[in-house]
Write a structure and sequence with these properties.
- This protein is of the alpha+beta class and 95 residues long.
- It has a single domain, classed as AF2212/PG0164-like (Elongation Factor Tu (Ef-tu), domain 3).
- Helix content is 22%, strand content 48%.
- The chain contains two helices and six strands; from the N terminus they run E-E-H-E-E-E-H-E.
- Strand 4 and strand 5 form a beta hairpin.
- The longest helix has 14 residues.
Length: 95
């Protein structure tokens, strides 16, 4: 079973112990992700996913946060797609 979703959201920066850039999955899509999370999670609520922004695709995991999910945006993706904090991007997720 594969679930595919597409949405637009803003890139934001987290300055935690391991700084990284993320995009937050819209709340209305998180309900669907939570419904399948039990079948696909590998721990801590993480959901493996294939992600695409523009012409760049990669494998990652959606992180649970504040009742929803966030998508980490790798540095090589940011460079390849010329992305910065505050940019609105279209993400395609296959879970």
């Amino acid at each position: 079973m594969t679930m595919e979703i597409e949405f637009r959201a803003e890139i934001w920066y987290w300055r935690g112990p391991a700084p990284h850039h993320f995009v937050t999955v819209p709340a209305e899509l998180c309900h669907e992700l939570r419904a399948i999370s039990g079948a696909v999670t590998y721990g801590w609520g993480m959901i493996p996913a294939n992600v695409q922004i523009g012409n760049t695709a990669w494998k990652t995991s959606l992180f649970p946060k504040d009742g929803g999910y966030i998508v980490p945006i790798r540095a090589n993706v940011q460079k390849a797609e010329n992305l910065n904090v505050g940019d609105i991007v279209t993400l395609r997720l296959a879970v």
